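May I ask for whichever protein you like with its backbone structure tokens?
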Amino acid sequence: MWWALVLNLAGSLVMLGWMFRRGGTRNVLLGVGVVFAFMAYGPLVNLILGESTYGGIVIAHLPAASTGFLLALVGLAFADLLQPQRQVRVPATSPRTYELLPIILAGLAGYAAVRILTLGPAMLGADKLTRIELAGRWHYPYLLAETFAVALYFVARRTAFYRALYWLNAAAYVAYCLVTTERDFLFVGLAVLVHVQVFDPSMRSRRLVVLGVASVALAAFLAALRENLTFGLAQALNQGSIPFVDTFVRLVVPDFWPYRFGESYLEALNPRGELLQTWLVNLYAAGSSGGYGFSLTAEAYLNFGTLGVPVVFVALGLLVRWTVNQAGRSEWTTYLSVLLLTAVLTTLRGESAQLVRMMGYGVVFFAVVWLGSSRSRTPTGVAHGMLSRGAMSVHDRV
């Protein structure tokens, strides 16, 4: 069994290395692959090293699950081969004035400040569930709204006033997440940073690597605080619940539950459909108040078996690559590219229904901001030029 894990891990590193060679750190699919590999293989590395790992992992199904992880990265690498990443530029600033944007940013920042000042001291000494209860019913809607607001970075940079409000709100959002030990800001922040680097070829790629490592450390530190664990390397590697979900799903499917053959992807379009993570909780620990998330690899297996994993990840990779290549054509396409990357990074430990809902709510959010704005008589200027119309690949530059 251990040899299978090591071989699959080695094969995954080869896939990541191949994507790095093709596009360097500016290869967005490489970023998706690295985040996925960390979540999927972190607990397995702990097992190999004899450290404690994420509870509930079905050891007998680890080799098959790790093969699924490798095939997911093969799918991303194949998508990278099919559709190269183009050089894009910061979008031209549209003539719209976005009057609603500063109101929304100020409102979100104000909400965070009030909650921190009134509930922050009580939260600091509480456990995870108590902090969430203290945060109240608007906790998760607020986090979701902030994800959409932070994704508007390339819209907010149009004037000094908008930029100041944007960073004020971002600081309030991060402070709120730190007090409540939530890590949502890391994914949208990483998505924005990736796009800044994609748009600016002069930016040193090592900056993104350093920020990525710092994000992992911060995520592990917040998890340690939330669960009263000792912060360290082994604890950091246990951030991903993917091995638990994938091995458990393989334990019950198809022996006890049949393959769904695409049903969950159709159900994802139903805003009131049951989430797979609810199905998992009911099977694993019925009546439990805790959630275990899910995973995109487990969902692919649940529908089509192991061979469905690379197919799903090829499709996912092509979708991410297409939106990145369209970024820069307008503020709409740039926002959607940032939002999709955020949603994908967030739902690697989730499911397609969460990805679809996050994208749907995000589109509605920006539509409200966009429709609530007027057109100025003269454009406010062009930042760095429009999308390059040539087909030059980012791989040709690195």
Observations:
- Residues 100-124 form the longest helix (25 residues).
- Residues 1-398 form one domain.
